[in-house]
């Protein structure tokens, strides 16, 4: 349940158009709903500002659909990450209004009122085309939770002129997500160009000595740009979740 939905419910009780018992029935699944295999946290939007997100890896399609349906019935925006094609088809069969992004491996359902649709501006950059799946996970997550997203892909340091060509586009955003593999140099360069938080996402892209993203992770952790912070390898979702909270606070 979102804060606005809760306030609307309480306003109905105050006006007398909804009985206290009916309101209590609607709130019966707070703070969580036990589906047997999952305790769905319906209270998270009230506590953290954003609803629970479904991490599909390790779940069955049926479990994912049941969790998705539970969240959707609550009226919040619903996001599934790391969804394969089988998982996505199962969700879309029950919720045809949802959108599957196969590159990002996401399934998303927007239910927020249009008036609340855009809160803050985030740029998502990636160093190379091979980093796009992680960047797309970040972009879809940010869009699902109401941020305006500018995508700037394949702007890595191997051709610095590509980044310089888009520097005007990153000057007006509230937060920047930078996804890079190999040696992970791009976030430091971006951090030196802007005065907003830069969230670095190391990707598991690279040859043997990249150690599946560990080299990029260590490089980003040692960034000399003090506005750079780092999330885990390939964690576009985590970067976007934090960026959305930053953008919301900055745009108020």
Provide structural commentary:
The strands form 3 sheets. The protein has a 5-stranded parallel sheet with strand order 8-7-9-10-11. A 4-stranded mixed sheet has the order 3-4-6-5, sandwiched between helices. It has helices at residues 3-15, 20-26, 44-48, 61-73, 85-94, 132-144, 160-164, 186-191, 214-221, 236-251, and strands spanning 32-34, 39-41, 54-55, 78-81, 99-101, 106-109, 121-126, 148-152, 175-180, 198-202, 228-230. The chain has 10 helices and 11 strands. It has 2 domains: 3-111, no CATH class; 116-251, Rossmann fold, CATH 3.40.50. With 252 residues, the protein is an alpha/beta fold. Strand 3 (54-55), helix 4 (61-73) and strand 4 (78-81) form a beta-alpha-beta unit. The model has no long low-confidence stretch (mean pLDDT 89). Helices cover 38% and strands 17% of the residues.
